[in-house]
């Protein structure tokens, strides 16, 4: 009986506290002069993940970008990333519903995330990376 | 004797308390209906079947690949080619609305300003409307849109979606392959092609309900 109660309490907590963490790591290109700004809004994720490089070029008159993500954690991480595009005045490109895309980052691996501007008006971008809420990942310190 | 009785009563009471606590826990988790709006763009992992995230990934990757290809760069340098979307053949074992995928791709391509589209799905409706304008006495003939003025498509966009599904007692694995091609209708040459892959696995969770 004494053992059952803590187990039951644990089950209740596991079952009910399932609201996922939605903060993550973002990189923003604040102007067309390629000034990048890295923001870590989830320190736990920031310890396991780093944005190490951002490259931009023009392809067919569209802004083409690759952002390099580097894992500093030994196991695979299940992540999602989203590009948001802005015009030269800093307005978000209307009607562009850039989706969150799933990504598996293997232990201590690098990966390049490619993004292409949806229109020729889109000149700057921001990239957000966060975890996928899944029971398949449990982290150790 | 009295002490034994007291112990038995205490045991029964704690038994009832445990049952009550479980009932409370279950009712707390199961019976509370909460409605909220979700993010339509978020990664969805409800089950292993083809879902919104897969559709969005396929559409975005195909559009990006097409728009950044060198051939399309040359093709769209001085003009906006006219394309018609044939269809995506669904070769998987699931029911998938492939028109939804082509809709997303054609919308994104149109929005890029690089291509123009003709919609073969609305030919009958257009014919009916033009018939009405040209034949029916209700319409002023000077404002009626004449037959034979539509523009023909120069390119055809088409593709396949196939899957390999494998599973055992503990694990299920599904692999999707989406192939897309752009054909020049005049020469019959395939000017651009690309494919994207998705792998999804489901394993039994050791914890949680």
Structural overview:
The complex is a heterodimer of chains A (141) and B (209). Chain A has a five-stranded antiparallel sheet. Chain A has a three-stranded antiparallel sheet with strand order 3-4-7. Chain A has 141 residues and is mainly beta. In chain A, a hairpin with a 2-residue loop joins strand 3 and strand 4. Chain A has helices at 4-16, 43-48, and strands at 25-29, 36-40, 49-59, 62-71, 77-86, 101-105, 110-116, 124-131. By secondary structure, chain B is an alpha/beta fold. Chain B is elongated. In chain B, helix 4 (98-112) links the parallel strand 1 and strand 2.
Briefly say what this structure is:
The complex is a heterodimer of chains A (141) and B (209). With 141 residues, chain A is mostly beta strands. Chain A is built from 2 helices and 8 strands.
Unreliable spans of chain B: none
Portion of residues in helices of chain A? 10-25%
Mean pLDDT of chain B: 87
Strand order of the largest sheet of chain B: 2-1-3-4-5
Helical residue percent band of chain B: 25-40%
Rough outline of chain A: elongated
Biggest β-sheet description of chain B? 5 strands, mixed
Question: Which band does the percent of strand residues of chain A land in?
Answer: 35-45%
Principal-axes geometry of chain B comes out as elongated
Provide the structure class of chain B: alpha/beta
CA radius of gyration of chain A is 19 Å
Please give the largest β-sheet of chain A: 5 strands, antiparallel
Tally the helices of chain B.
5
Number of strands of chain A: 8
């Amino acid at each position: 009986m004494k053992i059952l109660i803590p187990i039951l309490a644990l089950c209740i907590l596991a079952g009910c506290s399932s609201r996922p963490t939605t903060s993550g790591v973002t990189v923003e290109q604040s102007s067309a002069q390629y000034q990048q700004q890295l923001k870590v809004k989830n320190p736990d994720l920031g310890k396991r993940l780093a944005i190490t490089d951002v490259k931009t070029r023009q392809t067919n008159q569209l802004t083409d970008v690759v952002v390099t993500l580097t894992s500093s954690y030994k196991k695979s991480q299940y992540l999602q990333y989203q590009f948001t595009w802005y015009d030269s005045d800093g307005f978000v490109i209307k009607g562009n519903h850039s989706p969150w895309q799933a990504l598996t980052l293997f232990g201590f691996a690098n990966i390049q995330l490619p993004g292409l501007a949806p229109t020729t008006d889109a000149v700057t971008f921001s990239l957000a990376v966060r975890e996928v809420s899944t029971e398949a990942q449990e982290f150790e310190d | 004797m009295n002490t034994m009785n007291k112990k038995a009563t205490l045991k029964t009471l704690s038994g009832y308390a445990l049952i009550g606590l479980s009932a409370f826990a279950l009712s707390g988790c199961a019976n509370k209906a909460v409605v909220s709006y979700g993010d339509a763009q978020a990664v969805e992992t409800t089950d292993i079947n083809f879902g919104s995230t897969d559709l969005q990934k396929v559409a975005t990757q195909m559009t990006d690949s097409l728009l950044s290809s060198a051939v399309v760069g040359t093709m769209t340098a001085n003009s906006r080619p006219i394309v018609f979307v044939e269809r995506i053949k669904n070769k998987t074992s699931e029911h998938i609305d492939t028109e939804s995928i082509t809709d997303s791709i054609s919308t994104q391509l149109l929005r890029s300003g690089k291509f123009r589209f003709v919609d073969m799905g609305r030919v009958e409706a257009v014919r009916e409307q033009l018939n009405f304008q040209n034949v029916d006495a209700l319409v002023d003939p000077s404002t009626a849109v004449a037959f034979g003025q539509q523009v023909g498509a120069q390119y055809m966009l088409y593709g396949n979606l196939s899957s390999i599904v494998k599973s055992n007692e503990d694990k299920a694995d599904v692999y999707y392959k989406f192939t897309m091609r752009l054909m020049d209708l005049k020469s019959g040459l395939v000017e651009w092609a690309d494919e994207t892959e998705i792998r999804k696995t489901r394993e039994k969770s050791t914890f949680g309900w």
